[in-house]
Amino acid sequence: MNPLLGKLHPYPFERLRALTAGITPNPALKAISLGIGEPRHATPALVEEAIVAGLKGLSVYPPTAGEPRLREAFTGWLQRRYGLALDPVTQVLPVGGSREALFAIAQTIVDPTRPGATVVCPNPFYQIYEGAALLAGASVVYANSDPARNFAVRWDSIDDATWARTQLLYVCSPGNPTGAVMPLSEWEALFALSDKHGFVIASDECYSEIYFRDEPPLGGLEAAAKLGRTDFRNLIAFTSLSKRSNVPGLRSGFVAGDAAILKQFLLYRTYHGSALGPVVQAASVAAWNDEAHVVANRALYRTKFAQVTPVLAAVLDVALPDAGFYLWAGVPSSDGKPGDDIRFALELLAQYNVAVLPGSLLARTAQGHNPGTGRIRMALVAGTDECLEAAHRIAAFTRTFQPA
Ligand SMILES: Cc1ncc(COP(=O)(O)O)c(C=O)c1O
Known about the structure:
Layout: H1 12-20, E1 32-33, H2 45-53, H3 68-82, E2 92-95, H4 98-109, E3 118-123, H5 128-135, E4 139-146, E5 152-153, H6 160-165, E6 166-172, H7 184-197, E7 200-204, H8 220-226, E8 235-240, H9 241-244, E9 253-257, H10 259-272, H11 278-288, H12 292-313, E10 326-330, H13 341-352, E11 354-355, E12 357-358, E13 375-379, H14 384-400
Parallel strand pairs: 1-11, 3-4, 3-6, 6-7, 7-8
Antiparallel strand pairs: 2-9, 4-5, 8-9, 10-13, 12-13
Helix pairs in contact: 2-11, 3-11, 4-5, 4-10, 12-14, 13-14
The chain binds pyridoxal-5'-phosphate.
Pyridoxal-5'-phosphate binds next to helix 4.
Keywords: Aminotransferase, Transferase
Pfam family, one: Aminotran_1_2
InterPro entries: Aminotransferase_I/II_large (IPR004839), DapC_beta/gammaproteobac (IPR019878), LL-DAP_aminotransferase (IPR050881), PyrdxlP-dep_Trfase (IPR015424), PyrdxlP-dep_Trfase_major (IPR015421), PyrdxlP-dep_Trfase_small (IPR015422)
């Protein structure tokens, strides 16, 4: 058996299930889950229709690199969304959702025979980054997010010797769970570090189309182009239809950026056998070529967040994020230190039958503390009425919650 499998940490939901095993949620109230970040808005009809229309063609193996019209749909979208002109032949590749691609990129990039192979990731973070790094034979170093600076990651907490060993850096903007968007200055600093130390930046942008400010979130490739880095050297952006088009079950996304890296990534993927089936490719072409459903989807999130956030902000330390579909809230504490997110989540479930994710399960202890401690993540993926009902229950609960 591969001994690296033993290094994997249990997934946050597994840990939550174990923590809640002995709890009976209040049976008088209907269960509401704000736990899992799985889109629940309706899949657009145009995607479903494209699936039906695409059923012909199952008798051939699909190309791993995708059909030309799919790759052109990616570059067309990059042009409209970011004003970027990428080459559909060399600078984009289809992937089965960002999750598998974020995993696969570490297997492509990391050379475990180099001493001290290191992958850096934000903290809290999407757990796939860590598992991908560990299974690639690297060690993981975590950079904490800073609540005092809109949860910006403290990249400056990583010392030069660690950066020198780093082969891959994961960034997540808009961030899960914080919703923070990285500004150009942060990108500039990371590009300078990448140039100095030679590591690759994997930019997870799967929440890029759900945002609450006027300006759409800055993308990694867009930042690179603004800084004159039009070859996107050592940069790969990961984009997905799951959240943008409410199709997490389709398993479709794409990566874009440095052509030399994508060539190696395609080689890896060919052996791994990760081509998208023709039906998925057809549905993806339809989804990437249409923006109207994305605008409508964003409007639904905006209405929902505008109604739910003030209810929670009256009792918790929380504000409208830049983007994404999470609220990342501080729970009450009595001594100015972070509150007890696990006790808060368990008592909330027992008394009000609302599930939220304790923040400490989404982060590791680094630089002396766990930056998720004292926070809960609430995924506002259900309809507005259900999310509002949950918010009122959480507000009622918080008013009676006794911090230790
Ligand atoms: C930060 C982040 N990245 C990537 C993913 C994976 O999404 P998908 O594989 O559906 O594109 C998720 C899913 O929840 C996520 O939260």
